[in-house]
Amino acid sequence: MNVVIIPATYNEKGNIERLIEILEEEVFPKIKTHQTSILVADDNSPDGTGDVVKNLMKRYKNLHINQGEKKGLGAAYIRAMTHAIEKMGADVVFEIDADLSHDPREIPHFLKKIDEGYDIVIGTRYSSGGSMPKNWPMIRKMFSVTANLIVRLITGRVHIHDWTGGYRGIKKQVFLKEREKTKMYQGYTFQVAFLYKSVMDGYKVGEVPIHFADRELGRSKIAPIEYIINLLKYVIIERIKELKRFVKFLVVGGTGFIVQILAQEISVRTGFTFFLAQISSIIISKYTMHSDLASLTQAYGAAIGAETAILSNFFFNNTWTFKDRASQKNNGNVFIRLIKFNFTSFASIIIQFFAVWIGVKILGVDTAIWSVSIPTRILIVIPTIVLIIIPLNYLIYNKIIWKRQHEQDEKTLKS
After folding, report:
1. In 10 A of CB 87, how many CB atoms?
2. What pLDDT band is residue 310 in, cutting at 50, 70 and 90?
3. Are residues 254 and 203 part of one domain?
4. How far apart are CA 153 and CA 239, in angstroms?
């Protein structure tokens, strides 16, 4: 793979030369299986950072520079990564701080993760093996930990330990997919936005524990108060957007539940399920000692109700909840999706059939609660749907029926 390391610089004259020399003299010689180069993303630093890089380019032929107007960290990375992929043929691009806060000697560990199949690999200070500078004052440590913890809790992705760090290896297809979605975040919020969009699109995230070192020269460009405000604003708004889909899913599920109970009760009360039980009981009795028509009757009612709900849920989810994915080419036409939907939902029919069948055999056709007789089939179906069917179906809908487009995009890029 063609790997391009991209340090973003603004007034890093005292640091960039040391970083480049470590990469060229110590790190790159150890990387045998990939082609490596450096692209410095410089925002026209007035201190002469660009001139330092241009002088070093005479010594290192795999060193390049990409300069542009200062618009923020995110804008610099978007500009430079686009250049690396489109002009240099990069397969993997790296973010790394130019001030040596990130140890460039960790790059082989990042590449190992990418070789293992991860799409984006992040350096983490907050998992086992990672750390922050010991000389940082307590207030700065608290700020760093708190900002990251807020993002983990609000997004609900606590398994990702470091959302705010800027040491990352990113596959080409991930960047191309997320570029348009994140180009408006020109400052430090870009880091969180890019990772969040990648996670939302189902890309596989790996982690490498790192020791974050304090810079020796220059000063940090982060404005703490502005940074935390922008960060909070972003993650809260994005989380609300994400939850909208689940709320829609619950509304559709509620509608489907009403449809299911109606279909179940009609099929039982009209005697249709009793008819089915009589026919199937003749076949079943040849192989077993079964002779209980009551439990079979109720179980068939649950199965018919489940199938009716499945059809209802498919229609409303296809036209509302997952409307944005319904037209994606990798999800097929509506008829194919309906067949796939029924096939993958077959487990929920079986679960409800046997749950009601067993429940009726144990409790009887009706169950008395507070002196009120309630059909056992209804008492069994409700918790089965809430505790098992809803979580199972939401997973199936996301991963199979209305899956994300990026899997198809990856196949296209590879071809």
Report:
1. 11
2. confident
3. no
4. 10
Do residue 63 and residue 209 come from a single domain?
Answer: yes
Three-state secondary structure readout of 228-261: HHHHHHHHHHHHHHHHHHHHHHHHHHHHHHHHHH
CA count, 13 A, side-chain hemisphere, 254: 6
Q: Count of residues for the chain?
A: 415
CA atoms of 310 and 341, how far apart (whole Å): 8
Mean pLDDT, residues 164-184: 92
- Chain centroid to Cα 377, Å, comes to 38
Residue 134 has pLDDT above 90, yes or no: no
* Helical ranges in 66-188 per DSSP H: 73-88, 107-115, 138-155, 172-182
Give 405's pLDDT tier (boundaries 50, 70, 90). very low
Residue with the larger pLDDT of the pair 222 and 152 = 152
- The pLDDT mean for the chain works out to 85
Number of domains within the chain: 2
Residue 160's contacts (CB-CB under 8 Å, 6 or more residues apart) are 122, 152, 195, 199, 205, 207
Q: Is 90 a member of any domain?
A: yes
With respect to residue 237, please indicate whether it lies within any of the assigned structural domains: no
**How far is the CA of 114 from the CAs of 26, 119, 170, 172, 291, in angstroms?**
21, 6, 8, 12, 59
Average pLDDT over residues 320-335: 64
The answer to whether residue 236 sits within a structural domain is no
Place of tokens 């009360």: 269
The residue-averaged pLDDT of 31-43 equals 96
The rounded distance, in Å, linking the Cα atoms of 54 and 90 is 21
The predicted model scores a pTM of 0.66
Question: Quick one: pLDDT at residue 322?
Answer: 73
Give the per-residue pLDDT at 412.
45
Pairing mode, if any, of strands 366-369 and 205-209?
Answer: unpaired
Give yes or no: residues 185 and 271 share one domain. no
Q: Residue 413: is its pLDDT beyond 60?
A: no
Q: What are phi and psi of 300, to 5 degrees?
A: -65, -35
67 sits in which H/E element: strand 63-67
Q: How far apart are CA 297 and CA 150, in angstroms?
A: 52
Which residues, 6 or more positions from 56, have their beta carbon under 8 angstroms from its beta carbon? 17, 20, 63
**How many angstroms separate the CA atoms of 377 and 363, rounded?**
10
The residue out of 222, 253, 279 marking a domain boundary is: 222
